[in-house]
């Protein structure tokens, strides 16, 4: 299969994807337009591989951000406990609540 045919099938895919069609339905529509199933299969495998690569990269950055937020939440919690012990009860409790909010956001 040449690159022009791949690009043409990919353009049809993006056109249907912009129309909010389901991927299985897009697959059927492209085959109904007269493209060979093997060619469509190859392009769809390439698209799926690209999606997985992008998703893996996003997950890597999300895990780094989650670790940073956990550390930040721990520091804020310790500061809240320390401030509560020293005498700023209201601010200490507020920092403890802020730490819980940070940990909740780290889990997303």
Could you explain the architecture of this structure?
The chain starts with a helix and ends with a helix. It is built from 4 helices and no strands. It has 108 residues and is an all-alpha fold. Helix 1 crosses helix 2 (23-32), helix 1 crosses helix 3 and helix 3 (37-86) packs antiparallel against helix 4 (89-106).
Concise structural overview:
The protein is an all-alpha fold. The chain has helices spanning 3-18, 23-32, 37-86, 89-106.
Count of strand segments: 0
Q: Stretches where pLDDT falls below 50 for ≥5 residues? A: none
Portion of residues within helices:
over 70%
Helix/strand-derived class? mainly alpha
Tally of DSSP helical segments = 4
Tell me which oligomeric state these chains represent. Answer: single chain
What order do the helices and strands follow?
Answer: HHHH
The amount of beta strand, in percent, is under 5%
Question: What descriptors fit this protein?
Answer:
108 residues; mainly alpha; 4 helices; 87% helix; 0% strand
Task: Write the topology of this structure.
Layout: H1 3-18, H2 23-32, H3 37-86, H4 89-106
């Amino acid at each position: 299969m040449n690159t022009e045919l791949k690009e043409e099938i990919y353009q049809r895919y993006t056109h249907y994807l912009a129309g909010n069609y389901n991927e299985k339905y897009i697959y059927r529509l492209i085959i109904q337009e007269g493209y060979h199933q093997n060619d469509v299969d190859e392009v769809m495998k390439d698209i799926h591989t690209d999606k997985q690569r992008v998703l893996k990269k996003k997950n890597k950055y999300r895990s780094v951000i989650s670790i940073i937020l956990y550390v930040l939440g721990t520091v804020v919690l310790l500061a809240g406990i320390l401030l509560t012990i020293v005498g700023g009860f209201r601010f200490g409790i507020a920092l403890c609540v802020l730490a819980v909010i940070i940990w909740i956001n780290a889990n997303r």
